[in-house]
Amino acid sequence: MKRDFLHVTDFSADEIQATFALAKEVKARLERREDYKPFKDHSMAMIFAKPSARTRISFETGFFRLGGHALYLGPSDISIGKREAVKDIARVVARYNDVIMARLFAHQHVLELAEYASVPVINGLTDYNHPCQIMADMFTILEHRGHLNDLKVAYVGDGNNIVHSWLRLAQRLPFHFVCACPDDYAPDAQTIADARQAGLSEIEISHDPKAAVKNADIVYTDVWASMGQKDEAETRKARFQGFQVNDELMAATGKASLFMHCLPAERGVETTDSVLESKASIIFDEAENRMHAQNAILLKICRKA
User: Fold this and answer.
1) 39 and 171: one domain?
2) Are residues 164 and 229 part of one domain?
3) CATH of the domain at 156
4) Fewer CB atoms < 10 Å away: N or C end of the chain?
5) Using one digit for the tens of pLDDT, what is the confidence trace for 197-220?
6) CA–CA separation, 207 vs 215, rounded Å?
């Protein structure tokens, strides 16, 4: 049976750990410029309803460096769910390609793609979650700390798709996760309940950023208004006052915490230049590791490793 990667929970804890090990191995092989081409003569269709710099660059470059060809299909090429039924797109695109990556608005669309496509489907982002990002994030934390023991991650900002992915990961790996957000911007209630029900991680929803970041190993933030929410930007800026990750908030952790952001960042809004450019910031390691984590996921679901 084919494998898809639509949520972090599509992998078991052992598979997640194995994916991190594989990402480390493949990253080293690429750095040594080894002749390693497991995707030789393979093609990947990349369906974008939501445009993105990092997602396109990391998937396209990564697949190319592993010997494959990645085909970019932009918002106007397919108009998924508008010009043609998702289930028709899934079956047609799968006839031409060995794997499909989709970066979409509606989460239901990626679920439908996976249901009808005869090849593996990997979720490059939906409004609900961003599983590849969170795999890259935890892989980056592992690189910097050397282990994932006694880990506290404090996310400050909107309870968005990034938060949902952290909550999904908390159902597979044990860590302490706190989301500090305004009370009307909390993450999905069912996803919170599922993370708590798993009984593996400590999950907190807070409305006090300074209390939330205390003793945090990682302070994480994201834009306050994601793609498709830009008309709410000014309203959100007013509502998120006090939730900016700045030098004062980083100092409130009481330890040498690391700072993460999935990018792109709105400098001076959800975080400051001084934090983004600080020694605590590992945002560019995190961005690079998108490619390595995604390569490892692709190798796993395409059964090349």
Assistant:
1) no
2) yes
3) 3.40.50.1370
4) N
5) 999 999 999 999 999 999 999 999
6) 17
Q: How far apart are the first and last CA of the chain?
A: 16
Residue pair 223/249 in contact by the 8 Å Cβ criterion: no
Assess whether 122 and 135 both reside in one domain: no
Q: What is the signed CA dihedral for 62, 67, 68, 72, rounded to 10 degrees?
A: 40
254 residue type, one letter: G
Structure tokens belonging to residue 20 = 């991190």
The residue annotated as part of the active site, out of 132, 179, 181, 262, is 262
Residue 262 annotated to the active site: yes
Domain that holds residue 262: 131-286
pLDDT tens string 73-118? 999 998 887 888 999 999 999 999 999 999 999 999 999 999 999 9
Is 3 inside a domain boundary?
no
194: how many CB neighbours lie within 10 A of its CB? 16
Total domains present in the chain: 2
| pTM listed for this prediction | 0.96
